[in-house]
Amino acid sequence: MARFKLTPNDRYSIEAARRTLAAAESVNLLDGRAMAHMIGRLEVAVERLIEMVDESAGGSLVRCPAAHPEDLTPCGGPVVVTVLDADNAGADGCELHAARLLASITGGRPVAKPDAPDGVALRIFRAAHNTRPFPWREGQP
Fold it and tell me: What is the pLDDT of residues 38-55, one digit of tens each?
């Protein structure tokens, strides 16, 4: 089994998954609403664990919501901002995909997540300024 260094967020995700799994053991199987709620909690826990393992392996099968479906580049790290458009609709993104999305829309702005590094929104804004719109369509008319 491959070894990797656990960050505090990784440890939190693992502990949250353990608590969720322990709570699932006491759910009444005849209570459909409780079962649906627990299945949702388990899905979130598993998704977080998969993201953690993918990031430690140097790739990411689960991509951030800001990644365009045609953009095949892997995420450039964890989700650190929400890119808001002119109508305040938003998509969470890693630095790379947030900059690409911001470069491809009009009137958008990045808003840092509460746990994001200082200056990340400004860094993404500057990167978007130097990025062509829809960069994944290189070579297309």
Answer: 888 888 788 778 777 766
Polymer length of the chain: 141
Strand stretches in 20-123, DSSP E:
81-84, 90-93, 109-112
Q: How far from 15 is each of 11, 24, 140, CA to CA, in Å? A: 6, 14, 46
pLDDT, average across residues 64-84: 88
pLDDT score, position 56: 65
SS3 81: strand
The two structure tokens encoding residue 103? 């470069």
Phi, then psi, of 51 in degrees rounded to 5: -60, -40
52 contact partners, CB below 8 Å, separation of at least 6: 9, 10, 13, 14
Identify the DSSP state of 116.
S
Of the candidates 78, 58, 56, which has an alpha carbon nearest to the alpha carbon of residue 66? Answer: 78
